[in-house]
Amino acid sequence: MDELIDKHTITLLISQLGLAMVKEVFEAFVPNAEENIHFLQKNWHVEQHKDLRIKSHSLKSSAANLGFMQLSRLAKSLEEHCINHEQHEFNANKDKLDNLSPALKASIDELALMGITRERL
């Protein structure tokens, strides 16, 4: 099974920024990630490779920087699809699109169990 979160990255962030700041960073990340996920899911069937690539890249990078590895890998796969301009069929990546929100939720739940976020979603 894919690693959901990278606990080493999260521990490193806490040691560098402090727990209070890391909590603020995660609280700022979640709405932005949800917005990017919504955009990707809503617009994937439209031939907007540049916009889709930018949103998937943003989601991939920010998720990786915060240790949300499963979410980052899903977004990376979608970004690569946009870069390669493969046959742009909605169903070809529907499973990845459908897994973005559950991956974000599961990551947040894991952080809640670790005491880093306030509550589970």
Keywords:
121 residues
Write the layout of secondary structure elements.
Layout: H1 7-17, H2 19-43, H3 49-65, H4 69-84, H5 94-113
Structure, briefly:
The chain is mainly alpha-helical. It has helices spanning 7-17, 19-43, 49-65, 69-84, 94-113.
Give a structural overview.
The protein is mostly helical and 121 residues long. The protein has a single domain (7-113), classed as HPT domain (Four Helix Bundle (Hemerythrin (Met), subunit A)), CATH 1.20.120. The protein is 74% helix and 0% strand. It is built from five helices and no strands. It has helices at 7-17, 19-43, 49-65, 69-84, 94-113. Helix 1 crosses helix 2 (19-43).
Tell me the number of strands.
Answer: 0
Helix share, percent: over 70%
Tell me the name of the CATH homologous superfamily: HPT domain
How large is the radius of gyration? 15 Å
Beta percentage is under 5%
Main CATH class: Mainly Alpha
The rounded distance between the terminal residues' Cα atoms is 22 Å
The helix count comes to: 5
Biggest sheet overview: none
Q: Low-confidence parts, pLDDT < 50 over ≥5 residues?
A: none
> Helix and strand succession?
HHHHH
The figure for the number of domains is 1
Shape estimate? elongated
Mean pLDDT: 88
Q: What is the CATH architecture annotation?
A: Up-down Bundle
**CATH fold name:** Four Helix Bundle (Hemerythrin (Met), subunit A)
